[in-house]
Amino acid sequence: MKRYTAQAAAVSVMLTAGLVGCSTAPEAGAEGSGTLYVTTNAGVNAAWIDLVIPEFEKLHPNIDVIQDAIDPTTLQSTAAQLYASSSAPDVGFLQTSMAAYATLIDAGALTELNDVWEISGLTDAVQPNVVASWSVDDNHYGIAYNQVWAPVIYYNKALFEQAGITAPDGRVASSSEWLDLIGKLKDAGLQPLAIGGGEFPALHIAGALLQASSTGTNPYSDYLTNTLAGSTTPALYSSGPFLDAMTTIDEWNELGVFAKGTPSMTEGQSVSLFSAGGAAMLSNGSWAVQSAAKDSPDLDFGWFLYPMSDTGTETTFLTYVGDGMVIPKTAKNPIAAKLFLEYLAGVDGQALLVSTGSIPIRGDLPASTFDAFDAQTAEMIKAMSTLGGADIWSPDPTVNTAVTAAFSQILIGEKTPQQVGDEVQAIVDSLR
Amino acid sequence: MKLILSQTGRFIGFGLLLTWLVIVIVPLVAAVLNSLKSNIDIFSNPLGLNLGDIRFGNFVEALNGPVGGRPLWEYLGNSFVATILSIVLGMTLGVLAAYGLARSDSRRIATVNRIFTFLIAVPILATLVPTFTLMGALGLRDSPVGITLVYAAFMIPPTALLMRPYFAAVPAELFEAAKLDGAGEARTFIQVILPVVFPTLFGVIVINVIWVWSELALASVLLVTSSSKTLPVGLLAFKGQYSTELGVQFAGLLLGAAPLLALYFFFSRRITEGMAGGMLK
Amino acid sequence: MARNSSVVLNGRAAQAGKTLLVRPAARRRLKQRDESTALWLTAPALVLALAFIVYPVIETIRLSFFEWPGLGPATFVGLDNFVGLASDSDFATAVENNFLFAVVVTVGTVGLGTAFALAIDRRVAFWRVYRFVFFLPYILPMTIVAIMWANALDPNYGWLTGIVSLINPEWGVGALANPDTAMYVVCLVAIWQFAGFPMVMMLGSLSSIPRDIVEAARLDGAGPVQMAWRISLPLCKDMLTTVVLLQLIFSFKVFDLVQALTGGGPGSSTQVLGTLIFREAFVEAKFGYASAIALVASLSIIAISLVYLAVLKPGRIERQG
After folding, report:
1. Which range of residues forms the domain containing residue B220?
2. Average pLDDT over every residue of C36-48
3. How far is A26 from chain B (nearest CA, A)?
4. pLDDT (tens digit, 9 = 90+) per residue, B130-162?
5. Residue ranges per structural domain of chain C
6. Is the per-residue pLDDT at C318 higher than 90?
7. CB atoms C207 and B277 under 8 Å
8. What is the pTM of this model?
9. How far is CA B150 from CA A302, B80, B114, B142, C63, in A?
10. What distance in Å separates residue C157's CA from the closest CA in chain A?
11. Is B113 part of the contact surface with chain C (CB cutoff 8 Å)?
12. Nearest-CA distance from B155 to chain C in Å?
């Protein structure tokens, strides 16, 4: 009797305040206890979990959460082995774009999490494409927790002034405006664009240029699906939009758009180069706002999107929603693990994300949450509704690796755009 | 003429030595300076120190360990344990094996010798995944015992093969004299043979300590929970998904190298002389 | 100047030929007892090595005939992996790079190390400083060395980049970012770190040369170069060949340094066998293919070692069986 009243009260509170989250009264047996091991990705993910743990432990005093941060390289290399073994953690970080994700699901090594999505209300609180990208045969094997937007071009306001450039509003309207901008920067003796060419930013710029080059007959949306087995969409890589994108990269390289050392630059180096004023612009993602600000708190910088193509295809924010947390089947404390994920996917857990500079995946957070964002990210969030968003082009791990490598190979002249196009076409054909 | 040539030669030689001295010292100094700088300063002010922004805090952050990890001293402790255990096990077995290989010429022993020679050619990297599975089956992952066994195993072939010639060179007289004195095998070995080869032994221990302390690949695969990680693995987590605090990473790496460096400072003469004096041939 | 007693003994022993191993008049019973003692002595080491090295190696050999993503079932593919290697341009690059690396680094470290050892042995001015400092890089973990040098050669701010640009402005753009020069840079960094090892080994060898020979040569008027070339080095031939072999083997196994310095990039210009194995196994999730590479690499190392030993030390081989 008492519990029913309590639950009714909880539900009405939720409805009036518009909050969905872990304030559901605990059912019998769902208390959870013991130790919970969480493996996180070093950096933002680890920082977030670090904030979550004290709050979660307050709610569940019987659960002791221990975090293990692993650096991205080791995690990517060993995730499959680790999560499938007997020494798997209870909760682990995983990305849908990692090869390990597909491998683990195929091997049946991940716990199905449909109930977590329901209980935390995640299904209703996110965009449909998120639900879709985290579904395998209508089941969820992980929770999405954030979205990152990439690539975004950041610019150094002072250096732009010095070169006499008015920054575009939102996106660069045409390639001639872009070339004009580049020209002015070079005349002022500045390096135009810093980009982590040796790492994943290379993939992102390829995606942005692909979107810009896509046309009505070869829409960008086709490129998002035609690496799947059995796909029959005609979008090609050896010619058409992808080849145009690669050619553009080559042309920009000739023009000296990319800063010195781009082919082997790490993402972190490119951010530091920008923060130190060594380049006027930085091509990176929504997370870079925090890194750049941390490096150089006094830096005044803005943002805009990649140039549209001359055919008028608009570039938009490209969103990646593949960061997630999973529960291995061999987890020793699955009950506590699910409670933890429910918290992470719930409003409270999501709100904590903001202080790490990540954009939460839920759309139903109270407006006050977003006040905590820095100026640039807040601007971007507002601009999303006018500039639009699309799924990031992150086709398949093998294609990802090939395109990431292709960027530096084109820059150093090891391969021509046509060769890259042919190679990627071959890979995609073998995948289909 | 000869004098001029030899003077020039001396000049060049001296120049080479000094140049190398600079080449060795400058990067080391830069590394130390980098540990006290912010990310930007590391980039824009490579050899200098930004006196306005000396980040002693980097060392504090490094000592606290990476977010989601353990404090640095815990990693240090794990490294100490793993290193000492594996050196004790690996060197003991390796030295005994070297002695055994030196004692006999027989076919069987020659085969063992050949096996050890071939095993040196095995890159640790190639054995990572089978070792991971094997250790899982034995329940020795995340345990100092597991990593000790693997390190000791890899230590044995080079140790045995390096020490063997020095055991073989021990003169028969010593051996026979001990036998005449009525000493058993063990006594002979410990009290007579070992002291003779000790300088070389010391040198081999030094080499092994150096690679075990900094070994990364095996440790990152076998030690997954932060509380069991050795220092090199623990320091990896300073590299984040999107950015790295370079200064903190440098500070952490320097702290990690500190024990080895300290040992070197204190024992440098012993070390270089030890490796020197004992290395006959 | 104190000479280790075993050195003197070794001198005499070499003349007398009476050491533990070479026993001209060994009696059969003693030999058998020696063999059984020897077997007992080597057994524990052998067991450990068999368990933790040989077993994984056998697994690796087995895997090289399969295709395996690291989890789940492995598919048998016979010799496909090896056939694939033959036409893999990245593999060819890795082999080329590794050979280059092995030769350059071995020559560099042994050459420089020996030169330094000779100088220190002659007690040139500041010899103690050199002896202390030159071994220092060897003690540093490879990660720190790699980050230090990557930092120094950063195309935009590296302190070394400035100096390098004076020699050749093109190189300054990023010796590490330039595929033509990247591998050489990697070699140079390796030489920087490892020159101390041959130096110390040769120092020991040089210090065991009986002083009377040195004195006699000096009285005869031999200059430093002549002394080194005609007397010191020939007497240290054994150590020299051992050190060269060790450096060669190590160069073919190298992984940590290259991975931390360039990760195999830019493109594939600095891939070596070790980094390629890592990429195929842990990034591409093709453990079978990676095992094939590892197998080929190990066999090559063994082959090279055997050839080397056969050419340089025929007697040694016989004695070691």
Report:
1. 68-278
2. 89
3. 28
4. 888 888 888 888 889 999 999 999 999 989 888
5. 88-285
6. no
7. yes
8. 0.84
9. 52, 16, 20, 13, 20
10. 9
11. yes
12. 9
Mean pLDDT over A319-335 rounds to 94
Q: Residues 18-77, chain A: which have Cβ within 8 Å of C? A: 76-77
- On whether residue B262 sits in a domain, the answer given is yes
Residue identified by tokens 């030159």 is C134
- Pair of tokens at residue A68: 């293990």
- Residue C232, min C-alpha distance to chain B (Å): 12
C-alpha A199: how far from chain center: 14
Q: A2-144+322-360: which CATH number, 3.90.226.10, 3.40.47.10, 3.50.50.60, 3.40.190.10?
A: 3.40.190.10
Place of tokens 């999730």: C285
CATH top-level class of C88-285:
mainly alpha
For residue A11, pLDDT beyond 80: no
Question: Domain residue spans in chain A?
Answer: 2-144+322-360, 149-320+377-431
In angstroms, what CA-CA distances link A147 with A358, A365, A381? 7, 14, 11
Same fold, A2-144+322-360 and A149-320+377-431: yes
What is the ipTM score, two decimals? Answer: 0.85
Of the ranges A54-58, A227-231, C104-108, which one carries the lowest mean pLDDT score? A227-231
Only one residue has tokens 């009260």, namely: A9
Rounded Cα–Cα distance for residues A266 and A5 (Å): 56
Q: What is the CATH number of the domain that holds B214?
A: 1.10.3720.10
Do residues B147 and B222 touch, judged by C-beta distance below 8 A? yes
Best mutation target among A264, A272, A400, A415 (most C Cβ atoms within 10 Å) is A264
Q: Would residue B2 count as lying in a domain?
A: no
* Residue that is written with structure tokens 């719930």 in the block: A346
Q: What is the pLDDT of residue A256?
A: 92
Chain C residue nearest residue B208, CA to CA: C139
Residue C67: its H or E element:
strand C66-67
Q: Is-contact C264 C279, C-beta < 8 A?
A: yes
Predicted confidence (pLDDT) at residue A356 exceeds the cutoff of 60: yes
C72 at A interface, C-beta within 8 A: yes
Pairwise CA distance, residues A7 & A28, whole Å = 13
Cis status, amide bond into A151, omega within 30 of 0:
yes
Q: Which CATH architecture has domain A149-320+377-431?
A: 3-Layer(aba) Sandwich (3.40)
The mean pLDDT value of chain A amounts to 86
Q: pLDDT tens digits, residue range A371-414?
A: 888 888 888 988 988 888 888 898 888 888 889 888 988 988 88
Q: How far apart are alpha carbons C300 and C306 in whole angstroms?
A: 10
The answer to whether the beta carbons of residues B213 and B83 sit under 8 Å apart is yes
Residues in chain C within 8 Å Cβ distance of A76: 282-283
Number of domains in chain B: 1
Tens digit of each residue's pLDDT (9 = 90 or more) over C209-263:
778 888 888 788 777 777 778 888 888 887 788 889 889 998 998 888 888 888 7
Residue from the list A80, A261, A262 with its beta carbon closest to the beta carbon of C71: A80
